[in-house]
Write a structure and sequence with these properties.
The complex is a heterotrimer of chains A (317), B (278) and C (535). By secondary structure, chain A is mainly alpha-helical. Chain A is 76% helix and 0% strand. The longest helix of chain A is centred in the middle third of the chain and has 36 residues. Chain A starts with a helix and ends in an 11-residue tail after the last helix. In chain A, 47% of the residues are buried. With 278 residues, chain B is mainly α. Chain B is built from ten helices and no strands. Chain B is elongated and about 75 Å long. Chain C has 535 residues and is α+β, with helices and mostly antiparallel strands. In chain C, strands 1, 10, 11, 12, 13, 14, 15, 16, 17, 18 and 19 form an eleven-stranded mixed beta sheet that branches. A four-stranded antiparallel beta sheet of chain C has the order 5-6-8-7. In chain C, strand 10 and strand 11 form a beta hairpin. The longest helix of chain C is centred in the N-terminal third of the chain and has 22 residues. Chain C is globular and about 75 Å long. The chains are: A mainly alpha (317), B mainly alpha (278), C alpha+beta (535). Chains in contact: A-B, A-C, B-C. The interface between A and C is large, with 43 and 49 residues.
Amino acid sequence: MAILKYIGRRLLVLIPVLLGISLAAFLLGRIAPGDPVDDALFRIGIEFPTEEDRAAMRTELGLDKSLPEQYLDWLGKALHGNLGRSYIGNQDIAHELMTRLPITLKVSLVAMLVAVIFGVGGGVLMAACHDTWLDTVLKGLSTLLLSIPGFWLALFLITVFAEWLHLLPTSGLDRGLASLILPAVALSAANVGSTSRFTRGNILSQLGEQYIVVANAKGLSQRAVMVGHAFRNSLVPIITLIGNYFGGILGGSTIIENIFAIPGLGSYVLSAIQNRDYPVIQGYVLITGTTFVLITLAIDLLYLAVNPKIRLQGGEA
Amino acid sequence: MTRRKKQNLQLIMVCSILLAIVLMTIFAPWLAPYDPLEVNMDLRLLPPCCAHLLGTDALGRDVLSRVIYGGRASLLLAVAATACSMGVGLVIGIIAGYCGGIVDGIITAISNIFQGLPGMVLMIALVGVLERNSKSIILALVITSWVGFSRLVRGEVMKVKSEMYIEGMRCLGSGHLRIILRHVLPNIRTNVILQFTTRLGRVVLSVAGLSYLGLGIQPPTPDWGEMVSGTARRYFRSAPHLLWAPGLCIILLTLSINLLGDLLRDRLDVKQDSVKEL
Amino acid sequence: MKKKQLLSALLGAVLAMSLAACGGTPTSEETPGATAPSQSSAATVDQTREIAFAASRDQCPGEQDAYYASMSLGVWEPLITKDEHGKPAPALSTEWEHNEDSTVWTFHLREGVTFSNGTQFNADIVLANFDRMKKGPFESSFYGMNIDTIYPGLISYEKTDDYTVVLTLAEGQLLLDYTMVNYGSAIFEPSCFAEDGTFSGFPIGTGPYVVTENVLGQYCVIQRNDNYWGTPGITQTFRFKVIPDAETRYTALRAGEVQGLCDLGAISPSQAAEIDGDPAYNVSVGDSGITHFLNVNGGAFPFNDVRMREGLSLLLDRQTIIDSFYNGYGIPAGGFLSYTSAFYEEQPVQHDPEKGAQLIREVVGDQEVELRFLLPSGDVNRYPYQEEAEYIQALLENIEGTNIKVSIQQMDWGPCKDEMKAGNYNMCLKIQGLPSANPFSLFKGFMHTEGSTNINYGLGYHNDHVDALIEEATTCLDADRLTEIYKELQEISATDFPNIPVLYSQEVVASSSDITGYQATVYGLTGYTQVCWAK
């Protein structure tokens, strides 16, 4: 019962947050100075428009109404799954975002996988070899991963693995999993760095706690202690951390998608920003914002499943 | 060598690297062999040689001089942006944590909204819309990153507030400001220092990322981020010397900032910083 | 009129002959499955293998695009195309003529042409395409399709027989055939149109290739049309990938993932310089209708003074800019109109830094002047604008005896245009293409006091004589007089500087030596038909 009530309350709190995100999304599309009327006219073959042409197009794009009216219009339609049509290309935005979302999710998931395998794995390894040369080397490496500009890493990966070794494609998606490896690695590099450091630190601090001493006294090997107790206890913060990254990866893949020619959400919104395609920017922010909020909720619930001890009264975790 | 000694040595090394970088940027006018803005079309894209130790760029400007000057913009911007976003986060966090109740509720809801917005896209959109200068970049960085820190501060403040002695002090008639200054701030000092280093490194890289899209620091001001990922990236095969030096500088800078954070963390014996923040 | 008719007939003959010569087989109506390699060696090469190209934008933007695919893919063909002098040349229409006041235009259609699905091409097809065009305007990432722009004042379109179509216009359009070139007169099989005039499924055209697969934003695949009426293509299959990042695109070529880079900004000049001369690659340079302009705010000090504009123009060492930043790919521009236009008149390009500095000194003296230099970020990604702007900045800041400060700012094109319109700028580098083979709209837009570009770019240009000339051109029905007006406008542009022309662009493309026959610019309907594996 308490759990249901907790979930109910969490869902209730979501409403104002989602409304706020929708408002922010709407405004983000509108703060740009000037209007996209000229671009829209250019695309239908009017390179040298008159004032009448522009007024007509403004009405057609719905830009002649007041801001609150535009917001309510937009929100009403958005609730029915209609995000309008893009100024450029006249595409159904909801449809376009939904065909692109799986692509971005796919890349993000592989990136998460890389972060989990190398981040958590590396962290456990570092903790296990605590204070040996391997620990020092891995620690240095993880710090280095945190310090390289993403674009450089991408360029480096493409040059080495595509041009020199011919192992992986430079770009696109037409080679299945092989196409996803380089972007995922580039996307998760910094996360691998911080996850591994975080995991290491967490396990080490757990190792200092009492019951581990007890477990040691029972004669288990050092390694088993590590895996059995410390790691399980570090799991909760690690899950939260990785969950937070997911949001970051989802929203941060803009440049990486552009470099690797991946037609996901990021490259879509990037070109929308450059072309001032307001409805696309709005739809994008709304979708990623909502996805992020829902993922956070899911993680909190997962948290609950992993560690039922957590007090249910807390407004937010 | 004891662990402590080893750490001290590392700390000294990292600090001297950082100090060297800072000194280099401060004394750039005396250190740089040429004017970093001087264009000479007859000396385009020279490889490293005696007269130009790191060669020249597409406009015949001395790369070494530009590298020496290039830390200025990056560092200043990163420090200013980090300080501003943490300042905003600090104030909001203290208000939320200290006032509690409805104020806290509203601020928490607003933070949730900001946390839900995609940071990088928000930043690109904002800088794209605003005028291209450092002020816009700082503003965008503040808007996209104040939330994390304010949450951290709020948590700490609530912890301090719930402790018995503060209540006692309230009874004894201490003012709010006094309590905040005397008891809350000192408690979050370590966190502030650690957060500062973590964020500083990240901001340097974010600005370099903006330069990839032409939204970073504007030319002709020499800047490492711009030199690495701006238009010079087109020359990365034909004239790689344009990229190596500023690239190494950025990596060295962020690496030593991150290492400093690590060492400080060990030194100040903080268990781990909050999960939310990483 | 007679002269014109003769010319187009002649050109048609030449084109047909050249096509025949290139192909090696007679261009009869039925040449099913005939592979016609241009070199004997190519005959022994397996041409069924797929050739891949990469471009920065989608070559098949799909059903919502007015043309579905770029014309260069050879999926569809127009009534009228363009020859190497920028003049109209026959395509699906073999010849055409118009009445004395240019209000009635008659087009004779090519006979024996079938669409890729077997439908016969005839006058009814053309009328159906006009019906569809009237449902527009349609958007396109190439050139928007707007019947009012291409066929201004169109009253009626009807057929007089199965292979003759007559257009009647309210007012004479002396250069209608120029505006109809290529995208202006695209022809599709009407059954591929949806109710609203967009496409339902793949486009069906008369061209040498057929779209068989299209994943928007990723790639499209075209296959050879074995029933093509002209010289069919050699290669069986082409794939066009979208790779927006220039560096990745170039690496894909080097990694052998694609055999060529095509379309606007295919390869950056510095990259082209790297592989130019490398036997593993071919770099091809061709004509481009794009002109790079340094737009200046003529409504405000100091560029409101013609001496300042002329001074800056004299200061620019255009050849150095081309050699240094464009790897030599470009032509110094003296006048307003691109060298590829049929109406181009060469204008002298002058470089005299001393005189230029003197003129600027006269205008600004030793007072402190702050100039705001805007760069549209889209163009910065495509062209070496950053370097070019910093070079111009250095030129201006180093004029002895003056105190000029230039601040460069990169901006997205949208906000940039707003700043220009509001007059909050002094200089801005920007490209301008040829929207149509008829340069009238360009002249009017940039040089007329009420021209839309003149206003929207904040050029602040005003010249009574120019206004009178443009108004005369609006109603001019005499071809010779019109040519004369266009010539005079170009001369004025080279001395009065509504904006400062910097260079005429050249299109640069690159391909691997594994393939042959890929050229930067093709005239007529050749497209990719000559591109094939070399080994």
